[in-house]
Amino acid sequence: MSRSAQASVPVFKLYGETHPWPTPDLLHCESIPERSRLHDWYIRPHRHADLVHVLHVASGQVELELEGSQHALQGPLVIVVPAMTIHGFRFSQDIEGHIVTLAQPLAEQLGQRLEEQAKVLKHPDYHLLGQAQKARRLATLVSQIDAEYRQPAPGRDRMLDALIQALAVELARLAEPHGLAGSAPGLRQRDRGHEHLASFQALIEAQYRQQPSVERFAEQLGMSSAHLNALCRRLADRSALQLLHERLLLEAKRQLTYTNMTISQVADSLGFSEPAYFTRFFKRNTGLSPRDFRLRQHATDVPKRDAPDQAS
């Protein structure tokens, strides 16, 4: 696909949506029917700058477009869609399954913990679950993720973390017989632009609490700040500074929701020199002060807070 054609493909914030990531969690889980029926069972081709999709199709049919390749598939199967991969779906109305979406920070954490086995999340691919045992294992695991995600319980974060690691390992096992070059023929390798964006996102994940300047990031990547900004706008539809700010905002939301840290402690942990500066930053990006955001989150149950059509 040419660069001009790729530039015309929309960059979505979530599955078929343009509004922000709707949860302070690092993952999102929902059934395929609950979202796709809102779009008449068709999700037009798009890409995400900083999200990884894992679709588990338990039954039903899907017409998959993955990096320009078309595939007519029948469940049970699992589809892996890494960040920056152009993808689209047309589902049959009897489709059953779930879509698990990982925010880039979680994908980076999995890469550090699982190393080789996490590489499966960087390769666009699909895997047919022909063996009944494999199909049952994946279905059970995804069902556990969905149940834990929707129902708040003690240790929820740790349980979800363990389940997502197990999912990545299962996917790596599925990919083993044919390696990680991609079993779906015709899937292209990432170009240097994608590699540079991935390297920038990894630097953000490692350094966002220090809030380096865009110039400092560019220097570490061996390019000018103008080149880095142009790259981010072309591939992620945001500036380099916006990508850094989105990561800071996500962590701020997580700390305000899941910890008892004071506003000053949250501000300090995220590299803000003054709590007032953090408050202005947070309100400018969410429309709420940190205090009001925390009160709203605590007044709402987790399942409601994670409703996919509600913007944070």
From TrEMBL:
Annotated region (Disordered), positions in chain: 293-312
Protein origin, superkingdom: Bacteria
Stored SUPFAM superfamilies: Homeodomain-like, RmlC-like cupins
GO molecular function annotations of the record: DNA-binding transcription factor activity; sequence-specific DNA binding
Gene3D superfamilies per UniProt: Homeodomain-like, Jelly Rolls
Record Pfam families: AraC_binding, HTH_18
Domain HTH araC/xylS-type: residue ranges: 198-296
UniProt keyword list: Activator, DNA-binding, Transcription, Transcription regulation
SMART domains: HTH_ARAC (SM00342)
The name this protein goes by in its record: Helix-turn-helix domain-containing protein
Source organism per UniProt: Billgrantia montanilacus
Source species taxonomy: Bacteria, Pseudomonadati, Pseudomonadota, Gammaproteobacteria, Oceanospirillales
